[in-house]
Specification:
By secondary structure, the protein is of the alpha+beta class. It is built from one helix and five strands, in the order H-E-E-E-E-E. InterPro entries: DUF960 (IPR009303).
């Protein structure tokens, strides 16, 4: 299970990418989330066109073991967040 705050941050990251218009947003967004000290590190990537962005956010009360991978698939009509 992914904390709702992290889910909202990932949706915001996708919205920011779409609104900036610098990069064409791929239908598949991949997020890797890990904890470093008191910070959460979220890396967002896509394959076509290639894109990678990493954010570091200070959130102390979220527990993450190892690295979490989350996929967001956009069908055009709706988007689905998958936590394998």
């Amino acid at each position: 299970e992914v904390d709702i705050r992290l889910q909202l941050i990932m949706w915001s990251m996708i919205d920011k990418l779409k609104n900036e218009g610098n990069v064409e947003v791929d239908y598949l967004q991949i997020f890797k989330i890990r904890k470093e000290g008191n910070n959460i590190v979220i890396s967002q990537s896509q394959e076509v066109p290639e894109y990678l962005c990493t954010y570091e956010i200070e959130i102390e009360d979220i527990q993450i073991e190892g690295e979490i991978k989350v996929y967001v698939i956009d069908s055009g009509e709706y988007s689905t967040m998958l936590f394998p």
